[in-house]
């Protein structure tokens, strides 16, 4: 007979976080252990208690693996993050430079097709985000097995710079920055993290693992 | 890593749990054994991060078991203490014993 706990999956988001953050080699064992205890806890207590336990275990596991990633492979993590930071600095100005070159070279064309030029201007921020996504992917590729930890650590650097500049701006010109501007600043770190999540998801997928081996 | 490396508190506890559980030591049982005996909540992340570190030091060896349906088809990772790990447990225990010698904690500090 199938029990209630057999059909009840653990919180999906928590399971996904575990699969993203835990090192590749331990991911299956830890997910299995958590599922085993979760399934045993449901009939003993309640679904709510079991789900809360699962979330607590997940959230408490993440800092341990964060610290362990740097302790275990500092010579992979630190260069990957520093390289990612430099690549991000380099790529963040590329879209503006590209726009300047294209505008100068085809000035006559843009004068005749001003609407197209406006579209090009709108595409610049998108190009910037694609560049950040690329950086997130590259850092995750370099930090094999600890993709999300490397990508999030890299994303924390622009976050810290944003926080610092906000404090600085707030002192100089109080309330001079708009909410869209703030959201735009937050988009960059989020896209870096998304790049890490994409690489990790592809690597964790059994089908792609089979193909690559 | 120097040979006379002492164990941290949680490393020591995890190794003692492995010794108690013998061939039944995997994430769930280790975590539950520590919770049962120390009466403190332990996260599976702390257990695995410590076991991973101990394995790198050569104090522990791990081996994957067969996948089971109650674990969603995932395998258990069984751990056992190596001779080097056993020596480290003994060394740490002796060090703690020597530090405790002659101390009357209840009498002196209560």
Q: Secondary-structure blueprint of this entry?
A:
The complex is a heterodimer of chains A (213) and B (110).
Chain A lengths: L3 H4 L4 H10 L2 H21 L2 H26 L1 H19 L1 H12 L1 H6 L1 H29 L4 H26 L6 H26 L1 H7 L1
Chain B lengths: L8 H13 L5 H12 L5 H14 L2 E9 L5 E8 L1 H18 L4 H5 L1
Antiparallel strand pairs in B: 1-2
Key descriptive features of the protein:
A: 11 helices, 87% helix, disordered N terminus, B: 110 residues, two-stranded antiparallel sheet, 56% helix
Describe this structure in words.
- The complex is a heterodimer of chains A (about 210) and B (about 110).
- Chain A has about 210 residues and is an all-alpha fold.
- Chain A is built from 11 helices and no strands.
- The radius of gyration of chain A is 22 Å and the shape is elongated.
- Chain B is α+β, with helices and mostly antiparallel strands.
- Chain B has a two-stranded antiparallel ribbon with strand order 1-2.
- In chain B, strand 1 and strand 2 (about 75-80) form a beta hairpin.
- At the A-B interface, helix 3 and helix 4 of A face helix 2, helix 3 and strand 2 of B.
